Amino acid sequence: MARIIYSMLTSLDGYIARSDEDIGLPVPEAELHQHFNDMMRQASAVLAGRRMYETMRFWDSPERETGTDEVERDFAQAWRETPKIVFSTTLQQVGFNARLVDDDAENTVRSLKAQADGLVILGGADLAASLTRAGLIDEYRLYMHPVVLGGGKPYFQSGLSLALKPLGTESLTQGVTFLRYAPAG
């Protein structure tokens, strides 16, 4: 059975982006980037909403796999190799190694969870809120940067009530605190 992991960089005040046009969070440097590379290599699939998928399409570019930065080349390769399921009612098509689902995210993820194995990475707050309400997320991973954005897109959707139990905390490079939680129920 697959484990669904909602994993995002956040500010100290709980935002994953200042706005759709401005993330506002520091760019991961090599050591932190390698942490994400390792996680992507462990993933059997990636789940993403439209906005997250469009942001991550940056890594589909052939230049990412031939660039000068080794850690970025490695991530681009891992991203391209990992199957993606994109949930969107507005996209007409998705790129390489991606499947578009335009309805019933809950049943699609429930089926994936039952049929697949390993780690499934989930990115995107709106999709995460929907899957949280359905009880489908197994772990929440917050990578808290020592910055305050003061507003924007929150990691946890406004109005979402959730009891969590801590699974661990780790200090990472760039002053990032890595927090892991599971649903308490």
UniProtKB/TrEMBL annotation:
UniProt cross-references to SUPFAM superfamilies, sorted A to Z: Dihydrofolate reductase-like
Source species, domain of life: Bacteria
Pfam family, one: RibD_C
UniProt organism field: Mesorhizobium salmacidum
InterPro entries associated with the record: DHFR-like_dom_sf (IPR024072), RibDG_C (IPR002734), Riboflavin_Biosynth_HTPR (IPR050765)
Protein name (database record): Dihydrofolate reductase family protein
Bacterial bifunctional deaminase-reductase C-terminal domain boundaries: 4-177
